[in-house]
């Protein structure tokens, strides 16, 4: 009746689940809006500080940290009631909560609650229309508060690195980041606002008057020109409409010339005032430029070390410093309101287009507009409301409870001897167990809740001896034990086990042939049967609970160690992974991720459901890929060599996506070129019609001495094809090159387009074909799966690419297994699949099937 279950669970399940989320996502990331960003960073720092010992587990239980991690990761989709409940926990009088690491979370919760209040009730179109009147200047107090926050973060990072880093790494970080120098510099900044009537405002006024002047000149030019030798019409000449007076062209011309003269005088006066204001404001502007340049130098230190340091302290400090730089820049700008109105006008125009999830350019424009509004500390609730509605998670991983049980559950069948002293009597015999150890996935929206369940039918045959007579007592019954495991991305908790048993004992006679002896023994047993049943059940329950606790503690501790290891690795690359949380529902463990930034939105909608669920499912929206590459290329200039190197680094393929696998082409000096990418969606990915499209958008180009101030877009299609049992990523058809402004193209852009067309669509070279891993599962590149033999038994069972989403699914099918599920693989291209899926492929078939 003792359930031997520890090692199978340890080796096959807990560790695998503990690192599954890290394999796909990670645990810390750059977030989006200011209040969301502050909360997420505060939570990541709290987790890093607490660690994973018993004290940390105590805080995790008391402060509901699993719930906190989910609500912070949800960002603008968070449940305000849950945030308020968490705030109450952090605001209690519990000893130790006055520590700054807890205070940071409490303040961040307050700010997030304030920002999200009433967000869900906002009518976006009405709110953005009213935003025209809601401009708020950035005050000196705003800049000082942002500066103080950045200073505190810098000091915390300095103190953290002094304790945590080895001497060489510490010296390198302190030299590159100049933490002490940055703190001293921030404390010495003298904040000065632009004068109320500034050069920028004067320029704005002059531009408005120049616009009016152009309109007057056009009106003058539109007047008819009268020939001075042509006589005036006679008074009695026929008129078409005697009621309509003749236009007085001379009078109109005179009025227009007077208006033009007044405008020219006013423009000249404003020009003179502008020069005077400029001279008076020059010392402030010079100090502003010097301060800003120094801040940018400090920023450069963070950029240089970003790939090396990715811990939560580094990430949050970098974000706080960047935020102060932006607040300082916009706060000391001399005509912020005019640009604000232009941004709001653009938002009014583009916001309705977000109703179409396929309009990726509109989502890009809105993302850039929201970034500006947040940087300038404007309309925070409008920004949060747009993100709440139009920036949903763009990555999901589902692990089925059935898979967990197939890998971790096991039957329990054993027989053991019994030799026990029960109430002074020696009891001997044997007991048999026939049961099962399984995992139940409990629905919980804020965390993963797994219940280890051990159940067994028990049969025992025992006897006790008195003198030469043996009394036989048999028993049967059931016993079960449960132990809950709760975890999210920040930690893992194990609750105390629970056990129960129900045993029914019955007398089977004695070894005596004397009927009287048997009747007396039976009568005594009947008198004590209820006590015997209760005692037997109690012994079984107590023994089961002790053994169950002992045998589940070891694998749980291994799971915690693996969890902590995965956390540490993910923290060190937090600049590259999305914000995630984990929860359990519908017999699945679900990891939800969102990769976005202040300048980008995530998914516009939720993924669809297709057919039966798979053992492992991955859902990725194309915005996740675009948001990764956006900061790399947005508005930046790359030579052809730099571009190829960056693409090779991103894809792992020699030649990037523009050349055959293993080939990097060197251009002659006169053919070398550079591209300046657009600021909005410089590299866009599209998951549509079971194809992957990559669209590169450039706003400027250069080739040799030629400067080309015109835009081009380059679109390349790829498909996954099956060839002799191998999966290949194959380029489809020709690269499509289009002018951004076809009506105003000149000879230089036409010639450059022709040059690129020849390079991207060579006639004498095969299309790009990159070999993909078997089953699209790169086991060798995933540390969590590399050394696990069961990982090789996963078979690709779903592969779709449509309406912005990539759908992948795998089922675990051990060799020799009869376990079969239907496959759903329309995105693997071959002639047979094209014929079977004609309705899907027909619209694009001519350009795909060659």
Short description:
The chain has 850 residues and is α+β, with helices and mostly antiparallel strands. A hairpin with a 2-residue loop joins strand 2 and strand 3. It starts with 5 loop residues before the first helix and ends with a helix.
Overview of the molecule:
The protein starts with 5 loop residues before the first helix and ends with a helix. The longest helix has 57 residues, at 249-305. It has 25 helices and 21 strands. A hairpin with a 5-residue loop joins strand 3 and strand 4 (448-466). The chain is elongated and about 145 Å long. Strands 11, 12, 13, 14, 15, 16, 17, 18 and 21 form a 9-stranded mixed beta sheet that branches. Strands 8-9-1-10-20-19 form a 6-stranded antiparallel beta sheet. 36% of the residues are buried. With 850 residues, the protein is α+β, with helices and mostly antiparallel strands.
């Amino acid at each position: 009746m003792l359930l031997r279950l520890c090692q199978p669970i340890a080796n096959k399940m807990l560790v695998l689940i503990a690192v599954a989320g890290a394999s796909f996502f990670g645990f810390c990331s750059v977030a989006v809006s200011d209040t969301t960003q502050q909360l997420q960073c505060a939570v990541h720092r709290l987790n890093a500080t607490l660690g994973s010992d018993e004290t940390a587990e105590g805080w995790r239980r008391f402060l509901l940290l699993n719930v906190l991690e989910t609500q912070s990761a949800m960002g603008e989709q968070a449940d305000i009631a849950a945030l308020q409940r968490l705030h109450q926990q952090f605001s209690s009088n519990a000893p130790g909560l006055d520590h700054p690491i807890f205070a940071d979370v409490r303040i961040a919760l307050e700010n997030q609650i304030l920002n999200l209040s009433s967000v869900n009730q906002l009518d976006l179109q009405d709110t953005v229309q009213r935003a025209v009147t809601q401009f708020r200047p950035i005050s000196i107090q705003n800049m000082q508060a942002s500066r103080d926050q950045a200073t505190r973060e810098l000091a915390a990072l300095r103190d953290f690195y002094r304790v945590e880093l080895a001497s060489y790494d510490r010296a390198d970080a302190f030299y590159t980041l100049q933490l002490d120098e940055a703190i001293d510099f921030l404390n010495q900044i003298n904040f000065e606002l632009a004068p109320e009537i500034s050069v920028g405002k004067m320029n704005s006024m002059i531009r408005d008057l120049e616009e009016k002047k152009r309109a007057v000149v056009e009106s003058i030019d539109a007047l008819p020109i009268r020939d001075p030798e042509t006589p005036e019409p006679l008074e009695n000449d026929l008129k078409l409409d005697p009621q309509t007076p003749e236009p007085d062209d001379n009078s109109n011309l005179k009025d227009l010339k007077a208006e033009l003269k007044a405008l020219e005088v006013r423009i000249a006066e404003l020009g003179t005032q502008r020069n005077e204001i400029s001279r008076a404001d020059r010392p402030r502007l010079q100090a502003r430029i010097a301060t800003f340049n120094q801040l940018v130098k400090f920023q450069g230190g963070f950029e240089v070390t970003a790939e090396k340091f990715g811990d939560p302290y580094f990430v949050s400090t970098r974000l706080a410093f960047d935020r102060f730089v932006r607040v300082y820049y916009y706060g000391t700008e001399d005509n912020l309101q005019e640009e604000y109105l232009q941004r709001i006008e653009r938002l009014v125009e583009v916001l309705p287009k977000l109703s179409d999830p396929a309009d990726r350019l509109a989502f890009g424009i809105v993302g850039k507009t929201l970034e500006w509004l947040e940087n300038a500390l404007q309309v925070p609730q409008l920004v949060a409301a747009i993100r709440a509605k139009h920036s949903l998670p763009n990555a999901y991983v589902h692990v089925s409870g059935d898979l967990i049980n197939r890998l971790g559950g096991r039957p329990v069948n054993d027989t053991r001897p019994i030799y026990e002293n029960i109430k002074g009597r020696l009891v001997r015999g044997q007991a048999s167990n026939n049961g099962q150890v399984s995992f139940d996935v409990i629905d919980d929206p804020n965390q993963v809740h797994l219940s280890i369940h051990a159940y067994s039918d028990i049969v025992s045959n025992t006897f006790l001896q008195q003198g030469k007579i043996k009394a036989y007592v048999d028993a049967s019954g059931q016993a079960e034990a449960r132990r809950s495991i709760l975890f999210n991305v920040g930690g893992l908790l194990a609750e105390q086990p629970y056990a129960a048993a129900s045993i029914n004992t019955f007398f089977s006679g004695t070894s005596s042939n004397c009927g009287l002896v048997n009747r007396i023994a039976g009568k005594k047993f009947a008198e004590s049967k209820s006590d015997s049943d209760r005692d037997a059940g109690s012994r079984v329950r107590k023994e089961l609970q002790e053994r169950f606790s002992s045998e589940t503690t070891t694998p749980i501790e291994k799971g915690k160690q693996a969890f902590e290891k995965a956390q540490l690795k993910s923290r060190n690359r937090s600049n590259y992974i999305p914000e995630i949380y984990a929860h359990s529902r519908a017999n699945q463990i679900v990891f939800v991720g969102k990769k976005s930034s202040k300048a980008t939105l995530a998914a516009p909608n939720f993924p669809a459901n297709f057919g039966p669920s798979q053992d492992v499912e991955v859902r990725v929206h194309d915005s996740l890929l675009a948001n990764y590459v956006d900061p790399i290329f947005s508005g930046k200039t790359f030579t052809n060599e730099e571009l190829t190197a960056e693409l090779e680094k991103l894809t792992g393929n020699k030649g990037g996506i523009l050349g055959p696998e293993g080939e990097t082409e060197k251009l002659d000096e006169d053919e070398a070129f550079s591209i300046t990418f657009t600021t909005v969606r410089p590299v866009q990915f599209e998951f549509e019609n079971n194809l992957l499209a990559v669209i590169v958008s450039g706003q400027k180009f250069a080739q040799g001495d030629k400067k080309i101030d015109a835009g081009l877009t380059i679109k390349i299609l790829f498909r996954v094809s099956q060839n002799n049992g191998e999966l290949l990523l194959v380029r489809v058809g020709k690269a499509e090159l289009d002018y951004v402004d076809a009506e105003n193209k000149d000879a230089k852009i036409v010639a450059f387009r022709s040059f690129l067309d020849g390079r991207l669509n060579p006639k004498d070279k095969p299309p790009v074909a990159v070999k993909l891993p078997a089953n699209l599962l790169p086991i060798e590149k995933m540390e969590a799966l590399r050394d696990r033999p069961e990982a090789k038994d996963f078979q690709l069972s779903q592969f779709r690419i449509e309406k912005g989403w990539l759908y992948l699914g795998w089922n675990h099918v051990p060799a020799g297994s009869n376990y079969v599920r239907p496959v759903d693989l329309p995105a693997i291209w071959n002639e047979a699949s094209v014929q079977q899926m004609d309705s899907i492929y027909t619209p694009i078939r001519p350009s795909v099937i060659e």
